[in-house]
Specification:
The protein is an alpha/beta fold. 24% of the residues lie in helices and 27% in strands. Helix 3 packs across helix 5.
């Protein structure tokens, strides 16, 4: 992950230290209706509105209802339920070793309340439901040397993950048993690589089968812990060799590795999905080449993307090729003026990671670290501008960062399996719309302009009018 590789303004002021009492929820309910339903939908003639403002004065705040009694405005978002796109698969982050260490150090009550706020929809919870887990060391470790699960050939073990990472994941599962998991390695074991080093280098073709066996062992080991890795990639950021665990892998090499991995998963009776690429928006030709070299591989369902180069619209090429799109990593970073971090992150993430990603076929919105400390760590990578997590943990205090709210405006209201539906999206009010399986409609909107913007939402001949402050994010829910 290269937070410095893309110039983005970020902002950090307006942070709220959240104590255990402030995080307390009405219970540890689950994401889905049987264990704690989302907010009751508004009546058919009104839409319910929730809003987060860039000054932080409103944070996923219930703004009441607004009636469908207006008329279309010059800026009108017209809903078209007949224009259906991809289904929503999930939103979340990664329980990196760094995140797990910080969460485990919290007092038990604060930790329980934090996990409820992250993974439950009850009370103030946002119901995150997708976690992308590093398999072995990444650039965000708690301490110690970089490791894989089999640093010595024949001695495979995930014991290091069992110290803090897996316990935190299991606590999250206790809140929401329906979390979906992806596994991603940052490097093969050094002995499988041409340079015999976790940092950089390539996978030796003589060890393609060993690497496939290694990944299958990881899937099985996590499954034995009650954590199913539904989705799997072969390499994080395969076009980056750097000073932490990493491995270069061309598209042709990845295709060859996937062929070995596909038959190895099959031989072990595993139905794990595979995703190509797992790198930036700027090279969609990479996964397209992989697809061309692996035609007929049904478990290769699509491609995974990161935010550090290119634009989200590149993902549409994957959809046009008949494959699925998973957005799997983006780290928030501080703004040049740290006082601007909250407002800048709120707008940039809402516009790019949610709206433009999902209007370009994305099924998931996955940030990078679930939690980091006030120094953007612990980390052993190259965040030249401080990286931020979904939350910040400083001792026993927890801060909910802008990432929490940009995800929450989506994950709290859009159900897994919801279909993206048509919505006009030109102008400063950028938006994406969904229809939940029960028929409820959800509109996620962000004002990307520099001033408050009046607009209307028109659905089935009815219009509501609303004015959204500059840089604010809002979610509207209603029954058709």
């Amino acid at each position: 992950m290269r937070a410095h590789a893309r110039t983005r303004t970020r902002t950090r002021a307006m942070r709220t230290a959240v104590t255990a009492a402030a995080l307390a929820l009405t219970g540890t309910g689950l994401t889905y209706a049987a264990h704690g339903a989302p907010p009751t939908p508004a009546a058919a003639d009104t839409a319910h509105v929730w809003i987060t403002t860039p000054d932080g004065s409103s944070r996923l705040a219930d703004a009441g209802t607004t009636p469908f009694t207006g008329s279309p405005q010059s800026t009108d978002i017209t809903i078209d339920p007949s224009a259906t796109g991809q289904r929503f698969t999930g939103a979340g982050a990664s329980v990196t070793e760094a995140s797990a260490h910080l969460i485990q150090q919290l007092p038990a009550g604060t930790r329980d309340s934090l996990l409820a706020s992250l993974f439950s929809r009850d009370g103030d919870g946002i119901g995150l439901n997708y976690l992308r887990q590093p398999l072995g060391s990444s650039d965000f470790n708690a301490d110690g040397p970089f490791t894989t699960y089999e640093d010595t050939q024949g001695a495979f073990s995930i014991d290091r993950d069992k110290q803090e990472t897996i316990p935190v994941v299991k606590q999250a599962q206790a809140v929401n048993p329906s979390i979906r998991f992806m596994g991603t390695p940052w490097s093969a074991p050094a002995w499988m690589k041409t340079g015999n080093d976790l940092k950089g280098g390539k996978l030796d073709p003589a060890h393609y089968q060993d690497y496939a066996d290694y990944l299958v062992k990881a899937v099985k080991a996590y499954d034995a812990e009650g954590i199913e890795l539904t989705d799997l990639t072969t390499q994080n950021e395969p076009e980056l060799e750097t000073s932490y665990p990493s491995m270069s892998m061309s598209s042709s090499e990845q295709a060859d590795i996937l062929k070995v991995l596909d038959r190895t998963l099959t031989a072990n009776g595993l139905d794990t999905n595979l995703l190509a690429y797992d790198h930036n928006w700027d090279h969609p030709d990479y996964p397209l080449d992989v697809f061309g070299r692996t035609s007929g591989m049904s478990r290769l369902i699509g491609a995974a993307f990161h935010c550090y180069g290119g634009t989200p619209e590149a993902q549409q090429q994957i959809r046009d090729a008949g494959k699925r799109v998973f957005f799997t990593e983006c780290s928030g970073t501080d703004s040049e003026n740290p006082a601007d971090t909250f407002k800048d992150t709120l707008k940039w993430h809402a516009e790019n990671l949610v709206v433009r990603n999902m209007r370009s076929g994305g099924e998931t919105v996955v940030d990078w670290n679930l939690a980091l400390d006030p120094n953007g760590g612990p980390h052993q990578g190259n965040c030249s501008t401080r990286c931020n997590g979904v939350v910040e943990i400083a001792g026993g205090d927890v801060t909910l960062n802008a990432e929490y709210y940009t995800l929450g405006h989506l994950s709290k209201f859009v159900d897994v399996g919801a279909s993206r539906i048509g919505s006009t999206g030109d102008g400063t009010i950028q938006n994406v719309a969904f229809q939940n399986p029960d028929g409820e409609r959800v509109l996620y909107a962000v004002n990307t302009g520099s001033s408050a913007q009046p607009f209307s939402v028109t659905d089935d001949g009815r219009s509501l009018t609303y004015t959204l402050p500059a840089g604010a994010v809002a979610t509207f829910t209603w029954q058709p």
